[in-house]
Design goal:
Layout (H helix, E strand, L loop, with lengths): L6 E5 L3 H12 L3 E5 L23 E4 L6 H11 L3 H8 L1 E2 L4 E4 L1 H14 L3 E4 L11 E4 L7 H11 L4 E7 L2 E3 L9 E2 L9 H4 L2 E6 L1 H13 L20 H6 L27 E7 L6 E4 L8 H8 L10 E3 L2 E7 L2 H4 L5 E2 L2 E6 L9 H20 L11 H12 L28 H22 L9
Parallel strand pairs: 1-2, 1-7, 2-6, 7-17
Antiparallel strand pairs: 3-5, 4-5, 8-15, 9-13, 9-14, 10-11, 11-12, 12-13, 16-17
Helix pairs in contact: 1-11, 2-11, 2-13, 3-4
Protein name: Methylenetetrahydrofolate--tRNA-(uracil-5-)-methyltransferase TrmFO
Keywords: Cytoplasm, FAD, Flavoprotein, Methyltransferase, NAD, NADP, Transferase, tRNA processing
EC number: 2.1.1.74
Length: about 450
Protein backbone atom coordinates (compact mmCIF):
# COMPACT_ATOMS: atom_id res chain seq x y z
CA UNK A 1 0.00 0.00 0.00
CA UNK A 2 3.03 2.30 0.23
CA UNK A 3 2.88 5.41 -1.91
CA UNK A 4 -0.80 5.03 -2.78
CA UNK A 5 -1.62 8.52 -1.61
CA UNK A 6 -4.34 9.01 -4.25
CA UNK A 7 -6.26 5.94 -3.13
CA UNK A 8 -8.73 5.83 -0.30
CA UNK A 9 -8.72 2.66 1.78
CA UNK A 10 -11.91 1.79 3.64
CA UNK A 11 -11.94 -0.93 6.28
CA UNK A 12 -15.36 -2.51 6.72
CA UNK A 13 -18.19 -3.16 4.27
CA UNK A 14 -21.19 -2.40 6.46
CA UNK A 15 -23.53 0.55 6.07
CA UNK A 16 -20.88 3.19 6.77
CA UNK A 17 -18.09 1.63 4.73
CA UNK A 18 -20.35 0.95 1.76
CA UNK A 19 -21.71 4.50 1.72
CA UNK A 20 -18.27 6.04 2.18
CA UNK A 21 -16.90 4.02 -0.73
CA UNK A 22 -19.82 4.98 -2.99
CA UNK A 23 -19.51 8.68 -2.24
CA UNK A 24 -15.74 8.82 -2.70
CA UNK A 25 -15.75 6.70 -5.86
CA UNK A 26 -18.42 8.91 -7.42
CA UNK A 27 -16.20 11.91 -6.72
CA UNK A 28 -13.50 10.29 -8.87
CA UNK A 29 -11.29 8.79 -6.16
CA UNK A 30 -9.94 5.25 -6.41
CA UNK A 31 -11.23 3.22 -3.47
CA UNK A 32 -10.14 -0.07 -1.96
CA UNK A 33 -12.66 -1.69 0.39
CA UNK A 34 -11.08 -4.04 2.90
CA UNK A 35 -13.77 -6.44 4.15
CA UNK A 36 -12.51 -9.50 5.99
CA UNK A 37 -15.76 -11.41 5.47
CA UNK A 38 -16.28 -14.11 4.33
CA UNK A 39 -12.61 -15.08 4.75
CA UNK A 40 -12.75 -14.10 8.43
CA UNK A 41 -16.24 -14.50 9.86
CA UNK A 42 -18.11 -12.84 12.70
CA UNK A 43 -20.71 -14.70 14.74
CA UNK A 44 -23.46 -12.21 13.83
CA UNK A 45 -22.99 -12.04 10.06
CA UNK A 46 -24.21 -14.84 7.82
CA UNK A 47 -22.73 -13.76 4.46
CA UNK A 48 -19.84 -11.84 2.97
CA UNK A 49 -22.13 -9.27 1.39
CA UNK A 50 -21.76 -5.56 1.90
CA UNK A 51 -24.49 -3.80 3.85
CA UNK A 52 -25.68 -6.98 5.57
CA UNK A 53 -28.33 -6.19 8.18
CA UNK A 54 -27.75 -8.32 11.27
CA UNK A 55 -30.45 -6.91 13.58
CA UNK A 56 -33.66 -5.35 12.30
CA UNK A 57 -34.56 -4.98 8.62
CA UNK A 58 -35.91 -1.48 9.23
CA UNK A 59 -34.39 1.93 8.58
CA UNK A 60 -37.13 3.31 10.86
CA UNK A 61 -39.38 6.27 10.04
CA UNK A 62 -39.38 7.67 6.50
CA UNK A 63 -41.23 10.86 7.51
CA UNK A 64 -38.92 13.72 6.53
CA UNK A 65 -41.14 16.45 8.01
CA UNK A 66 -41.84 15.20 11.54
CA UNK A 67 -39.06 12.69 12.26
CA UNK A 68 -35.31 13.23 12.53
CA UNK A 69 -34.36 9.86 11.06
CA UNK A 70 -36.75 10.45 8.16
CA UNK A 71 -34.99 13.76 7.61
CA UNK A 72 -31.68 11.89 7.52
CA UNK A 73 -33.19 9.60 4.84
CA UNK A 74 -34.11 12.69 2.80
CA UNK A 75 -30.66 14.25 3.09
CA UNK A 76 -28.96 11.02 2.03
CA UNK A 77 -31.24 10.68 -0.99
CA UNK A 78 -30.42 14.25 -2.04
CA UNK A 79 -26.73 13.37 -1.84
CA UNK A 80 -27.16 10.33 -4.10
CA UNK A 81 -26.67 7.90 -1.22
CA UNK A 82 -26.28 4.23 -2.14
CA UNK A 83 -27.93 2.91 1.03
CA UNK A 84 -31.13 4.93 0.65
CA UNK A 85 -31.28 4.37 -3.10
CA UNK A 86 -30.99 0.60 -2.61
CA UNK A 87 -33.42 0.59 0.30
CA UNK A 88 -36.05 2.26 -1.86
CA UNK A 89 -35.60 -0.40 -4.55
CA UNK A 90 -36.14 -3.25 -2.08
CA UNK A 91 -38.72 -1.57 0.14
CA UNK A 92 -41.33 -3.65 1.97
CA UNK A 93 -44.68 -2.46 3.37
CA UNK A 94 -44.04 -1.25 6.93
CA UNK A 95 -46.52 1.50 7.70
CA UNK A 96 -44.60 4.75 8.02
CA UNK A 97 -41.25 2.97 8.32
CA UNK A 98 -38.70 2.12 5.63
CA UNK A 99 -38.15 -1.65 5.85
CA UNK A 100 -36.39 -3.78 3.25
CA UNK A 101 -35.88 -7.32 2.06
CA UNK A 102 -32.55 -7.68 3.80
CA UNK A 103 -31.01 -10.35 1.54
CA UNK A 104 -31.96 -8.59 -1.69
CA UNK A 105 -30.81 -5.27 -0.22
CA UNK A 106 -27.34 -6.55 0.73
CA UNK A 107 -26.89 -8.31 -2.60
CA UNK A 108 -27.74 -5.11 -4.49
CA UNK A 109 -25.32 -3.04 -2.39
CA UNK A 110 -22.62 -5.64 -3.08
CA UNK A 111 -23.35 -5.69 -6.80
CA UNK A 112 -23.25 -1.89 -7.07
CA UNK A 113 -19.90 -1.58 -5.27
CA UNK A 114 -18.33 -4.51 -7.09
CA UNK A 115 -19.35 -3.09 -10.47
CA UNK A 116 -18.09 0.44 -9.80
CA UNK A 117 -15.00 1.17 -11.95
CA UNK A 118 -13.31 3.15 -9.15
CA UNK A 119 -13.69 0.45 -6.48
CA UNK A 120 -11.55 -2.59 -5.72
CA UNK A 121 -12.35 -5.23 -3.10
CA UNK A 122 -9.90 -6.93 -0.73
CA UNK A 123 -10.85 -9.70 1.71
CA UNK A 124 -7.66 -9.46 3.75
CA UNK A 125 -8.09 -8.60 7.41
CA UNK A 126 -6.55 -5.31 8.52
CA UNK A 127 -5.08 -5.66 12.00
CA UNK A 128 -3.09 -2.44 12.42
CA UNK A 129 -3.55 1.29 11.97
CA UNK A 130 -1.51 2.33 8.87
CA UNK A 131 0.88 5.25 9.10
CA UNK A 132 0.59 6.15 5.38
CA UNK A 133 -2.21 6.78 2.95
CA UNK A 134 -5.80 7.90 3.49
CA UNK A 135 -7.95 5.47 5.46
CA UNK A 136 -11.46 5.22 6.83
CA UNK A 137 -12.15 2.63 9.53
CA UNK A 138 -15.83 1.69 9.50
CA UNK A 139 -15.62 -1.66 11.25
CA UNK A 140 -18.73 -1.16 13.33
CA UNK A 141 -19.66 -2.91 16.56
CA UNK A 142 -17.93 -6.16 15.55
CA UNK A 143 -14.41 -4.78 15.15
CA UNK A 144 -12.01 -7.73 15.17
CA UNK A 145 -9.99 -8.39 18.31
CA UNK A 146 -6.62 -7.64 16.68
CA UNK A 147 -7.76 -4.35 15.18
CA UNK A 148 -9.54 -3.44 18.39
CA UNK A 149 -6.32 -3.89 20.29
CA UNK A 150 -4.49 -1.68 17.79
CA UNK A 151 -7.12 1.05 18.18
CA UNK A 152 -6.99 0.78 21.95
CA UNK A 153 -3.20 0.99 21.91
CA UNK A 154 -3.26 4.08 19.71
CA UNK A 155 -5.98 5.94 21.58
CA UNK A 156 -4.53 5.16 24.97
CA UNK A 157 -8.00 4.66 26.39
CA UNK A 158 -10.27 1.71 26.95
CA UNK A 159 -12.90 1.29 24.31
CA UNK A 160 -16.38 1.86 25.62
CA UNK A 161 -18.83 -0.99 25.20
CA UNK A 162 -22.44 -2.01 25.49
CA UNK A 163 -24.33 -5.08 24.34
CA UNK A 164 -26.45 -4.97 21.23
CA UNK A 165 -29.12 -7.65 20.93
CA UNK A 166 -30.64 -9.35 17.88
CA UNK A 167 -34.39 -9.94 17.58
CA UNK A 168 -35.76 -13.36 16.51
CA UNK A 169 -37.31 -14.07 13.09
CA UNK A 170 -40.40 -16.28 12.66
CA UNK A 171 -41.62 -18.20 9.59
CA UNK A 172 -44.91 -16.58 8.51
CA UNK A 173 -46.59 -19.90 7.79
CA UNK A 174 -46.22 -20.89 11.44
CA UNK A 175 -48.15 -17.86 12.76
CA UNK A 176 -51.77 -18.52 13.72
CA UNK A 177 -53.74 -15.93 11.74
CA UNK A 178 -56.96 -16.83 13.52
CA UNK A 179 -55.38 -15.03 16.48
CA UNK A 180 -53.05 -12.50 14.84
CA UNK A 181 -54.29 -9.71 12.55
CA UNK A 182 -52.72 -7.32 10.07
CA UNK A 183 -52.57 -3.64 11.01
CA UNK A 184 -50.00 -0.87 11.33
CA UNK A 185 -50.30 1.20 14.48
CA UNK A 186 -52.87 3.96 13.93
CA UNK A 187 -53.30 2.56 10.37
CA UNK A 188 -50.23 4.48 9.24
CA UNK A 189 -49.42 4.45 5.54
CA UNK A 190 -51.00 5.63 2.31
CA UNK A 191 -51.72 2.20 0.81
CA UNK A 192 -53.56 -0.83 2.09
CA UNK A 193 -50.28 -2.74 2.19
CA UNK A 194 -48.67 -0.06 4.35
CA UNK A 195 -51.67 0.11 6.68
CA UNK A 196 -51.49 -3.66 7.17
CA UNK A 197 -47.73 -4.04 7.28
CA UNK A 198 -47.53 -5.56 10.78
CA UNK A 199 -48.91 -8.73 12.35
CA UNK A 200 -50.33 -8.21 15.83
CA UNK A 201 -50.64 -10.80 18.58
CA UNK A 202 -52.92 -9.72 21.48
CA UNK A 203 -52.50 -10.58 25.15
CA UNK A 204 -54.93 -10.49 28.04
CA UNK A 205 -53.73 -9.26 31.43
CA UNK A 206 -53.28 -12.84 32.68
CA UNK A 207 -51.35 -13.83 29.57
CA UNK A 208 -49.14 -10.78 29.89
CA UNK A 209 -48.38 -11.44 33.57
CA UNK A 210 -47.51 -15.08 32.83
CA UNK A 211 -45.25 -13.94 29.98
CA UNK A 212 -43.41 -11.50 32.23
CA UNK A 213 -42.93 -14.21 34.88
CA UNK A 214 -41.45 -16.58 32.28
CA UNK A 215 -39.27 -13.84 30.83
CA UNK A 216 -37.78 -12.97 34.21
CA UNK A 217 -37.20 -16.61 35.12
CA UNK A 218 -35.65 -17.66 31.78
CA UNK A 219 -32.01 -18.68 31.57
CA UNK A 220 -29.90 -15.83 30.18
CA UNK A 221 -26.61 -15.63 28.31
CA UNK A 222 -23.70 -15.18 30.69
CA UNK A 223 -21.22 -12.37 30.16
CA UNK A 224 -17.54 -13.05 29.73
CA UNK A 225 -15.20 -12.20 32.56
CA UNK A 226 -14.46 -8.50 32.69
CA UNK A 227 -17.48 -7.50 30.64
CA UNK A 228 -20.23 -5.29 31.98
CA UNK A 229 -23.76 -5.00 30.71
CA UNK A 230 -24.14 -1.34 29.85
CA UNK A 231 -27.01 -1.26 27.37
CA UNK A 232 -28.02 1.41 24.90
CA UNK A 233 -31.57 2.41 25.88
CA UNK A 234 -32.79 2.29 22.28
CA UNK A 235 -31.97 -1.40 21.98
CA UNK A 236 -32.60 -2.93 25.40
CA UNK A 237 -33.13 -6.70 25.63
CA UNK A 238 -36.74 -7.34 26.57
CA UNK A 239 -35.80 -9.10 29.78
CA UNK A 240 -33.79 -6.07 30.90
CA UNK A 241 -36.84 -3.90 30.23
CA UNK A 242 -38.99 -6.33 32.22
CA UNK A 243 -36.53 -6.15 35.11
CA UNK A 244 -37.13 -2.38 35.26
CA UNK A 245 -40.80 -2.93 36.04
CA UNK A 246 -43.59 -5.32 35.09
CA UNK A 247 -45.41 -2.66 33.07
CA UNK A 248 -42.33 -1.47 31.15
CA UNK A 249 -42.89 -3.70 28.12
CA UNK A 250 -46.57 -2.79 27.99
CA UNK A 251 -45.54 0.85 27.62
CA UNK A 252 -42.76 -0.01 25.17
CA UNK A 253 -42.68 -2.56 22.33
CA UNK A 254 -45.86 -4.28 23.61
CA UNK A 255 -48.02 -1.17 23.95
CA UNK A 256 -51.61 -1.84 22.77
CA UNK A 257 -52.39 1.68 21.53
CA UNK A 258 -53.45 2.48 17.96
CA UNK A 259 -54.60 -1.09 17.29
CA UNK A 260 -57.97 -2.83 17.04
CA UNK A 261 -58.22 -6.62 17.13
CA UNK A 262 -59.84 -7.54 13.81
CA UNK A 263 -61.08 -10.84 15.27
CA UNK A 264 -62.54 -9.31 18.45
CA UNK A 265 -62.94 -5.57 17.85
CA UNK A 266 -64.95 -5.12 21.04
CA UNK A 267 -62.10 -6.43 23.23
CA UNK A 268 -59.20 -4.10 23.99
CA UNK A 269 -55.91 -6.07 24.25
CA UNK A 270 -53.95 -5.56 27.45
CA UNK A 271 -50.70 -5.84 25.47
CA UNK A 272 -49.77 -6.50 21.83
CA UNK A 273 -46.71 -8.13 20.28
CA UNK A 274 -46.00 -6.83 16.77
CA UNK A 275 -44.18 -8.65 13.98
CA UNK A 276 -42.80 -6.86 10.91
CA UNK A 277 -42.28 -8.44 7.50
CA UNK A 278 -38.62 -9.27 6.97
CA UNK A 279 -38.44 -10.18 3.27
CA UNK A 280 -40.19 -9.38 -0.02
CA UNK A 281 -41.83 -12.80 -0.21
CA UNK A 282 -43.54 -12.22 3.13
CA UNK A 283 -42.32 -15.58 4.42
CA UNK A 284 -40.34 -14.16 7.35
CA UNK A 285 -41.37 -11.81 10.16
CA UNK A 286 -39.22 -10.36 12.94
CA UNK A 287 -40.64 -9.72 16.40
CA UNK A 288 -40.45 -5.95 16.81
CA UNK A 289 -38.43 -4.74 19.79
CA UNK A 290 -37.73 -8.27 21.06
CA UNK A 291 -33.96 -8.12 21.29
CA UNK A 292 -32.92 -10.71 23.84
CA UNK A 293 -30.06 -12.37 25.65
CA UNK A 294 -32.07 -15.42 26.67
CA UNK A 295 -30.53 -18.75 25.77
CA UNK A 296 -31.96 -20.41 22.66
CA UNK A 297 -33.99 -23.08 24.46
CA UNK A 298 -35.54 -20.50 26.75
CA UNK A 299 -36.36 -18.21 23.84
CA UNK A 300 -38.35 -20.85 21.99
CA UNK A 301 -40.45 -21.75 25.03
CA UNK A 302 -41.05 -18.16 26.20
CA UNK A 303 -41.92 -16.77 22.78
CA UNK A 304 -44.36 -19.60 22.13
CA UNK A 305 -46.39 -18.25 25.06
CA UNK A 306 -47.37 -15.33 22.80
CA UNK A 307 -50.91 -15.88 21.44
CA UNK A 308 -50.63 -16.73 17.77
CA UNK A 309 -47.05 -17.98 18.13
CA UNK A 310 -47.81 -21.19 20.04
CA UNK A 311 -46.62 -23.23 17.05
CA UNK A 312 -44.07 -20.74 15.78
CA UNK A 313 -41.06 -21.95 13.82
CA UNK A 314 -38.01 -19.71 14.08
CA UNK A 315 -35.75 -18.91 11.14
CA UNK A 316 -33.38 -17.22 13.59
CA UNK A 317 -33.41 -16.86 17.34
CA UNK A 318 -32.20 -13.78 19.13
CA UNK A 319 -28.62 -13.21 20.12
CA UNK A 320 -26.37 -10.69 21.78
CA UNK A 321 -23.01 -9.22 20.95
CA UNK A 322 -20.60 -6.68 22.29
CA UNK A 323 -20.75 -3.28 20.60
CA UNK A 324 -17.64 -1.14 20.78
CA UNK A 325 -17.21 2.56 20.08
CA UNK A 326 -14.71 5.36 20.50
CA UNK A 327 -14.96 8.27 22.86
CA UNK A 328 -15.19 10.40 19.75
CA UNK A 329 -15.42 13.86 21.40
CA UNK A 330 -11.90 13.36 22.74
CA UNK A 331 -10.37 11.35 19.88
CA UNK A 332 -11.78 12.73 16.60
CA UNK A 333 -11.56 16.18 15.04
CA UNK A 334 -14.36 17.90 13.13
CA UNK A 335 -13.29 16.06 9.96
CA UNK A 336 -13.71 12.69 11.74
CA UNK A 337 -9.92 12.22 11.71
CA UNK A 338 -8.09 10.55 14.56
CA UNK A 339 -6.28 13.44 16.21
CA UNK A 340 -3.13 11.41 16.79
CA UNK A 341 -3.13 10.06 13.20
CA UNK A 342 -4.90 12.48 10.84
CA UNK A 343 -4.49 10.13 7.86
CA UNK A 344 -7.13 7.93 9.54
CA UNK A 345 -10.84 8.66 9.78
CA UNK A 346 -13.53 6.69 11.56
CA UNK A 347 -17.13 6.30 10.45
CA UNK A 348 -20.27 4.43 11.44
CA UNK A 349 -21.20 2.90 14.77
CA UNK A 350 -17.63 2.82 16.01
CA UNK A 351 -17.83 6.63 16.25
CA UNK A 352 -20.73 6.49 18.71
CA UNK A 353 -23.78 6.81 16.50
CA UNK A 354 -26.47 4.17 16.80
CA UNK A 355 -28.52 2.69 13.97
CA UNK A 356 -28.17 1.69 10.34
CA UNK A 357 -29.16 5.11 9.01
CA UNK A 358 -26.91 7.07 11.33
CA UNK A 359 -23.98 4.76 10.51
CA UNK A 360 -24.50 5.20 6.77
CA UNK A 361 -24.81 8.97 7.21
CA UNK A 362 -21.44 9.16 8.96
CA UNK A 363 -20.02 7.04 6.15
CA UNK A 364 -21.40 9.50 3.62
CA UNK A 365 -19.65 12.39 5.37
CA UNK A 366 -16.38 10.53 5.93
CA UNK A 367 -16.25 9.43 2.29
CA UNK A 368 -16.79 12.98 1.02
CA UNK A 369 -14.32 14.44 3.50
CA UNK A 370 -11.58 11.96 2.61
CA UNK A 371 -12.16 12.29 -1.12
CA UNK A 372 -12.09 16.08 -0.93
CA UNK A 373 -8.78 15.95 0.94
CA UNK A 374 -7.28 13.58 -1.63
CA UNK A 375 -8.50 15.73 -4.53
CA UNK A 376 -7.34 18.96 -2.93
CA UNK A 377 -10.84 20.43 -2.90
CA UNK A 378 -11.75 21.75 0.55
CA UNK A 379 -15.15 20.50 1.60
CA UNK A 380 -17.53 23.17 2.88
CA UNK A 381 -18.29 22.82 6.57
CA UNK A 382 -21.23 20.47 7.16
CA UNK A 383 -24.15 22.70 8.21
CA UNK A 384 -24.92 22.07 11.85
CA UNK A 385 -28.64 22.67 11.27
CA UNK A 386 -28.86 19.63 8.95
CA UNK A 387 -29.46 16.16 10.38
CA UNK A 388 -25.97 15.08 9.27
CA UNK A 389 -24.51 18.21 10.84
CA UNK A 390 -26.34 17.72 14.12
CA UNK A 391 -24.99 14.18 14.40
CA UNK A 392 -21.38 14.90 13.50
CA UNK A 393 -21.34 17.93 15.79
CA UNK A 394 -22.60 15.75 18.63
CA UNK A 395 -19.97 13.04 18.27
CA UNK A 396 -17.01 15.31 17.55
CA UNK A 397 -17.55 17.84 20.29
CA UNK A 398 -21.17 18.50 21.14
CA UNK A 399 -21.46 15.58 23.55
CA UNK A 400 -20.06 15.49 27.08
CA UNK A 401 -16.95 13.31 26.81
CA UNK A 402 -17.21 11.98 30.37
CA UNK A 403 -20.69 10.57 29.80
CA UNK A 404 -20.51 9.91 26.04
CA UNK A 405 -22.88 7.18 24.87
CA UNK A 406 -24.12 6.04 21.43
CA UNK A 407 -26.83 8.29 20.03
CA UNK A 408 -29.59 8.02 17.45
CA UNK A 409 -30.40 11.13 15.46
CA UNK A 410 -33.14 13.11 17.21
CA UNK A 411 -34.41 16.66 17.33
CA UNK A 412 -32.79 17.11 20.72
CA UNK A 413 -29.46 17.40 18.84
CA UNK A 414 -30.75 20.33 16.74
CA UNK A 415 -30.17 23.97 17.61
CA UNK A 416 -33.40 25.58 18.90
CA UNK A 417 -35.62 27.64 16.63
CA UNK A 418 -36.68 31.02 17.91
CA UNK A 419 -40.32 32.03 18.05
CA UNK A 420 -41.78 28.51 18.14
CA UNK A 421 -43.82 27.11 21.00
CA UNK A 422 -42.11 24.62 23.28
CA UNK A 423 -43.52 21.48 24.89
CA UNK A 424 -45.69 18.75 23.42
CA UNK A 425 -48.36 21.09 22.03
CA UNK A 426 -45.88 22.97 19.89
CA UNK A 427 -44.00 19.90 18.79
CA UNK A 428 -45.51 19.49 15.31
CA UNK A 429 -44.74 23.06 14.22
CA UNK A 430 -41.32 22.88 15.86
CA UNK A 431 -40.37 19.64 14.09
CA UNK A 432 -41.55 21.02 10.75
CA UNK A 433 -39.41 24.08 11.42
CA UNK A 434 -36.36 21.91 12.09
CA UNK A 435 -36.84 19.88 8.91
CA UNK A 436 -37.53 22.90 6.69
CA UNK A 437 -34.40 24.61 7.96
CA UNK A 438 -32.33 21.44 7.57
CA UNK A 439 -33.45 20.82 3.99
CA UNK A 440 -32.61 24.37 2.98
CA UNK A 441 -29.07 24.34 4.39
CA UNK A 442 -28.41 20.80 3.11
CA UNK A 443 -29.31 21.75 -0.46
CA UNK A 444 -26.99 24.76 -0.25
CA UNK A 445 -24.19 22.53 1.04
CA UNK A 446 -24.64 20.07 -1.82
CA UNK A 447 -24.81 22.87 -4.38
CA UNK A 448 -21.49 24.23 -3.08
CA UNK A 449 -19.94 20.92 -4.09
CA UNK A 450 -21.43 20.95 -7.56
CA UNK A 451 -24.23 18.54 -6.63
CA UNK A 452 -27.63 19.44 -8.06
CA UNK A 453 -29.44 18.50 -4.88
CA UNK A 454 -31.85 16.12 -6.58
CA UNK A 455 -32.52 12.64 -5.27
CA UNK A 456 -30.74 9.73 -6.95
CA UNK A 457 -32.78 7.92 -9.58
Amino acid sequence: MRGMTQELHIVGGGMAGSEAAWQAANMGVRVVIHEMRPKVKTFAHQTGNFGEMVCSNSFRSDDSEQNAVGLLHWEMRQAGGLIMQTAQTHRLPAGGALAVDREAFAQSVTDALTAHPNILISNEEITELPSEGQWIFATGPLTSAALGEAIQHETGADRLAFFDAIAPIVYAESIDMSVAWRQSRYDKGETDAEQKAYLNCPMTKDQYEAFIDALLAAEKTEFHEGETAGYFDGCLPIEVMAERGRETLRHGPMKPVGLTNAHKPEQKPYAVVQLRRDNALGTLYNIVGFQTKMKYGAQASVFKMIPGLENASFARLGGIHRNTFLNSPTLLDAQMRLRSRPNIRFAGQVTGVEGYVESAAMGLLAGRMAASEILGRPLPEVPQDSAHGALIHHITGGAEAKTFQPMNVNFGLFRPLEGLRGGRRGRRDRYKGYTDRAKAVWEVWLAQQGVDGQAAE
